[in-house]
Design a protein that fits this description.
Elements lengths: L2 E2 L13 H21 L7 H7 L32 E5 L9 E4 L7 E4 L4 E4 L7 E2 L8 E6 L7 E5 L2 E5 L7 E2 L17 E6 L7 E5 L3 E4 L7 E2 L14 E4 L16 E5 L6 E5 L7 E2 L10 E7 L4 E6 L4 E4 L7 E2 L9 E5 L2 E6 L2 E5 L7 E2 L11 E4 L2 E9 L1 E5 L7 E2 L11 E4 L7 E4 L4 E4 L7 E2 L9 E6 L7 E5 L3 E5 L7 E3 L5 E7 L7 E6 L8 E5 L7 E3 L6 E6 L7 E5 L2 E5 L7 E4 L10 H4 L4 E6 L7 E5 L3 E5 L6 E3 L9 E6 L7 E5 L3 E5 L7 E2 L11 E6 L6 E5 L4 E6 L2
Parallel strand pairs: 1-50
Antiparallel strand pairs: 2-57, 3-4, 4-5, 5-6, 7-8, 8-9, 9-10, 11-12, 12-13, 13-14, 15-16, 16-17, 17-18, 19-20, 20-21, 21-22, 23-24, 24-25, 25-26, 27-28, 28-29, 29-30, 31-32, 32-33, 33-34, 35-36, 36-37, 37-38, 39-40, 40-41, 41-42, 43-44, 44-45, 45-46, 47-48, 48-49, 49-50, 51-52, 52-53, 53-54, ...
Length: 720
């Protein structure tokens, strides 16, 4: 076999050397795990989205893979392709908010933050408008000035953003923080924000780098953490300031009291400051488990602190953290705690519990659908009106007994996988966290499946080409699922492996499936599974010892299968019986540490449906390769790409010379000459310019959809 790939530098495309890139990757992976625990729906991560972006189409086309869940499809136009286009929102799927804040002076005014966006509602959650002005990747925290509520702070992955006019205009206020510089550093993530209610120009922030404070509204920040944590990066740190949880619960005698705990690298270090962070005293935490702190909140009405650890249970202290006792939930490990109006909430995977008796008893929050599983805040003038984070923003007007969705217009959903129903340009399936959305009208409206599919990302989707009622979904943490009613309900398919990376269906024999799987997410090792009876029984395929991240079947000869891994692209010509590694991205020897090989992964494979000798492969950090002889030899095919961090590839099924590619830092590119040259294509990707995860293209090539990390699904509207 001849490989004609030119040698590439081991430096990353953004200028970081390999050592720094690996270190950054490890930090992102740890952040992914933490966010999966804390925010079930949208705290997915750059790493996870990048991994899932390359899920392949069932038929080798490179597609990475509200009412009744049924619908009709309209025929597509067969007009010629114009040379330019604009990406337009597809109106969903709604959801994706992770944090919510209520204007203390105008209760109908709400702000919600999600994956790159800030949204505002002026009618109590009836409708929302995106008021984001900057292309942030995520928004983790919000804080409103209690005396001037038109001033709002947003904690983003690139520092602190501030508006002084209720969201109409935003500016970064990062004096003293690490600034975001494209291609050089990621900026400083802000995980929590607290405005001092007595001195509102004083704001505290928990950042990637340390606990920081400003006394001039964000113009200048300084580190205030105690030694030895003054310069330690601590995304797990919990910070409490009296008055933070509710303006009605401020203790006016202790406005300068701060509790902070560092536990990123070992047992909890619990500190207290009574002068706004100028000096600190370590508090001996008798009765608290010798484990990392999970979350820390304060009920300022009763003067009680509540905390969780990495071990099960909830703990409380009535003496400022000096002694702790059990507050129940001994057999559970909540991912987070919140306090609202004297009620303490504990978030579990997929549910929220509450106690109003100090932890003596806990009960589920409400009954019925749309229950919150994240933050809960109340209307400051009507305590029976509550807002929460669940599958989007949810609202209760009866004190939490029943809940309804209140997120119309909040489109901040991370979509790792996307596919069209075969021969349709209107029936779309979009995988998110723990759910699959469906549209029957080309993305104009979306429905959520009735069955929860675990808590992790759905990274692979495939539709049976003969029986459109059968759909398969692969979870990054939760295994394989099958729907027999076109996505309305789902059941788990037993494969004995819980992390799915890719799914491909034989177009000539749809009961034959190939599934890339491993025992756990982020594992370098894995296997390929095959079934010939629709998942009733499975055969473990030998010959590929690595986790499979992309799959493609020759559309004319489906016994020819390509599987992309961290260690090269493999080909089988006998339905998986035997395998040959046909190319690698770069010297990535067997046994290399997984994080090091991360950038060499083949995340997308696309096969020309008219001439299967033409094959295209996208590599996470090394551009695109092209073969014109069925995979025997390969050449680089990235002329014109300004970024080689590929996340997805797809071909136009009507004219396979037209290809689309997404790059992690460069937006979308288009080729009209079979990948010989590439050009940036399509405007309109504001928040998603660098985070397209998958494509889906209709039969005529004119319906082109892209899945994003925060803007849901967008559609390419061609110019005339």
């Amino acid at each position: 076999m001849k490989v004609t790939v030119p040698p590439r530098s081991t430096d990353a495309p953004d200028g970081r050397d390999l050592t720094q890139r690996v270190a950054d990757l490890e930090a992102l992976i740890e952040e992914a795990r933490r966010r999966a625990r804390r925010r079930r729906l949208v705290y997915a991560t750059v790493v996870l989205a990048a991994i899932t972006a390359g899920v392949a189409a069932s038929f080798g086309l490179g597609v990475n893979g509200s009412g009744s869940l049924t619908g009709s499809q309209a025929p597509e136009s067969s007009a010629a392709h114009p040379a330019s286009g604009r990406w337009q929102p597809s109106r969903g799927p709604d959801g994706g908010a992770v944090v919510i804040a209520v204007d203390p002076a105008h209760p109908g005014v709400l702000y919600a933050g999600g994956w790159g966006n800030v949204f505002k509602s002026t009618d109590g959650g009836g409708s929302w408008k995106d008021v984001t002005a900057k292309p942030w990747t995520r928004v983790d925290s919000l804080a409103i000035d209690p005396t001037h509520p038109s001033i709002v702070y947003a904690g983003t992955d690139r520092g602190v953003a501030k508006t002084t006019d209720g969201g109409r205009h935003w500016r970064m206020v990062n004096g003293g923080l690490v600034e975001y510089e494209p291609g050089r550093n990621h900026g400083e993530g802000i995980y929590s924000l607290v405005v001092d209610v007595h001195h509102p120009r004083t704001v505290f922030a928990n950042s990637d780098g340390a606990l920081v404070k400003t006394t001039d509204g964000g113009a200048h920040w300084r580190i205030i953490g105690p030694e030895p944590y003054r310069t330690e990066s601590c995304p797990h740190c919990a910070v409490l300031i009296h008055g933070y949880q509710s303006a009605a619960a401020i203790d006016p005698d202790h406005a300068e009291t701060i509790y902070a705990s560092w536990s990123s690298t070992g047992p909890t270090g619990f500190y207290k400051s009574t002068n706004g962070g100028t000096s600190w005293r370590r508090v001996q935490t008798r009765g608290f488990p010798s484990a990392q702190l999970g979350s820390l909140v304060g009920d300022w009405v009763s003067g009680t602190l509540y905390a969780t650890a990495s071990s099960p249970g909830v703990y409380k202290s009535i003496d400022g953290g000096g002694t702790w006792s059990s507050a129940g939930l001994d057999g559970e490990t909540p991912w987070g705690l919140t306090v609202n109006g004297g009620t303490v909430y504990a978030g579990l995977n997929g549910s929220l519990l509450e106690t109003d008796d100090g932890g003596a008893t806990w009960q589920p929050v409400g009954t019925g659908p749309n229950l919150p599983d994240g933050d809960v805040v109340s209307d400051p003038k009507d305590p029976s009106t509550l807002y929460g984070i669940g599958d989007g923003v949810v609202k209760s007007v009866d004190g939490g007994r029943t809940w309804s969705l209140a997120d119309d217009g909040v489109v901040s959903t991370l979509i790792p996988s996307l596919t069209l129903q075969p021969d349709s340009s209107d029936v779309l399936y979009a995988g998110s966290y723990g759910t699959v959305f469906k549209s029957t009208d080309g993305g104009r409206s979306w429905l959520r499946g009735e069955t929860e599919l675990g808590t992790g990302a759905i990274v692979a989707l495939a539709v049976d080409p003969e029986n459109r009622q059968i759909v398969y979904a692969g979870g990054w943490y939760d295994g394989l699922f099958r729907s027999e009613d076109a996505g309305r309900t789902w059941r788990a398919v037993e494969t004995r492996l819980k992390s799915i990376g890719a799914i491909a269906i034989d177009p000539h024999a749809p009961s034959t499936l190939y599934v890339g799987a491993s025992s756990s997410a982020f594992s370098a090792n894995g296997t390929l599974l095959k079934t010939v009876d629709g998942g009733a029984t499975w055969q473990m395929i030998t010959g590929i010892p690595w986790a499979v991240q992309s799959l493609a079947l020759d559309p004319r000869t489906p016994s020819t299968v390509f599987a992309g891994t961290n260690h090269g692209l493999y080909r089988s010509r006998d339905g998986g019986g035997t395998w040959q590694r046909v190319t690698t991205a770069s010297p990535a020897p067997n046994g290399v540490y997984f994080n090091l090989s991360f950038g060499f992964a083949f995340v997308a494979v696309a096969i020309d449906p008219l001439n299967s000798d033409n094959i295209y492969a996208g590599i996470r950090s090394h551009g695109i390769l092209r073969s014109s002889d069925g995979g025997n030899t390969w050449t680089a095919a990235d002329t014109g790409l300004t970024d080689e961090r590929i996340t997805a590839i797809a071909l136009d099924p009507r004219d396979p010379r037209i290809l689309y590619a997404a790059a992690a830092g460069g937006g979308v590119f288009r080729s009209t000459d079979g990948a010989r040259t590439w050009h940036p294509f399509g405007t309109g990707l504001v928040h998603s310019a660098d985070n397209v995860t998958a494509f889906a293209i209709g039969p005529s090539g004119r319906a082109v959809f892209a899945a994003t990390e925060g803007d849901g699904v967008v559609r390419l509207g061609f110019g005339r």
